[in-house]
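Notebook B, p. 112. Complex prediction, attempt 2.
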Amino acid sequence: MKIEESIEDVCRRLVRLLPADYREQHGEDLVTTLVDTADERGVLPLRERLGVLALAVRLRVVTPLSARTMAALVTLLLLFQAQQAPVALVSTVWGSVVQSRMDYDVSLWWTVGAAVSSVLWVIAFVAWLYGKVRSALWSAALAVLPLGIGMVDSVLNRIEGRSIWWVLGAFVSVFGSPFVVWSLLALLALSLGVTGGLRAPGRVRWWLVALPICAVVFQIPDLTRLIWLGPLPTWEIWLFAILVWIGGFILALRSPVVVLASGWAAALTAVIYALDPPTYTEEGRMVALAALATAVVLAACAYLGQRRTPSAREPV
Amino acid sequence: MSHLSEQAFLVLTALADEPRHGYGVLQEVDRLSDGRVRLAAGTLYGVLDRLTRQGLVVVDREEVRNSRLRRYYRLSDDGARTLAAEAARMESSARTALTRLGKPAPSTGGGNA
């Protein structure tokens, strides 16, 4: 009897590894089953301990990338692409690329391509919000096309007298830039979302309101660069990150799924900047670090938000 | 409809004749697979959670014995249909494989696995 009590304690301690809401639903039942699997000496086999550990990892790490989080992530990636439209259009009208972060000559293909591309991203974003997934996918695919042509054209304009290695290096550099990677990532995520039958979460009007707000907020770093004619100061990068943390904290109770998806987006940002050549500059390193910290903070906010309001499933 | 994993198939099969609690399902899966598949409780609850969310398994009842809660699970109508369809698909695949190997397919006496 004493042994049985002790095995029950062991099982309860093990089950504590599982998330609280799961424990609430299945904890007692699982403890009973685990106690039944104990051997004749009243010892819980290692495979049972590992089984619960694997379940805990799946519920805490894999399940957060559930369908709803993926849908929110797709929407965020499309929002990020669409918010660039105003600046891209203005740049085209002025005949120069205000937003370009690259140090090579700007071709006509690139400026016009960027503008057309950004408008197509807006169409893709709105179509996705209204459930017109096929239209969204087509618009996104078309949005990537002029961008690609513009990029190739930019390299070809400077090809004269260069070695084949220089050309290859230029292509890798151009297509590995965060701007292009984000576009391809958004297209890939949308394709996966459409294949998986996902739909934009939350209310359409809130996402539409978010579009102009993001269009303004995301231009702040580029405006800073223009004003100071140099890289972003470290304090501005961290200030930006802290503002996102505060936003995540406020939004966590209302829509933990969107906050969690924002955390994934921040993690992707960290990876993209960590892999990009600008990482060798102070700015690239700082952006990667701030994005990583943001991913952790947002994931924690989402987790706490979900725990405090388990029924809060409707994001935004 | 996507195919069931072997674990999910065995769990559904274990619940096909009567509702069972967690440990009962573990034992039945062990028996059905001749000891080849031995699910850990954590793995079983992961599978049950997924099957419940898909509407293939439902909770039949709860019992408290010796101050321990036992939850009994059973197949839903959808679960029974899915299991039957998967069994038929597997039977058809097995027949094809045996025919190509030149071995006679064992008679199942009516088509259901």
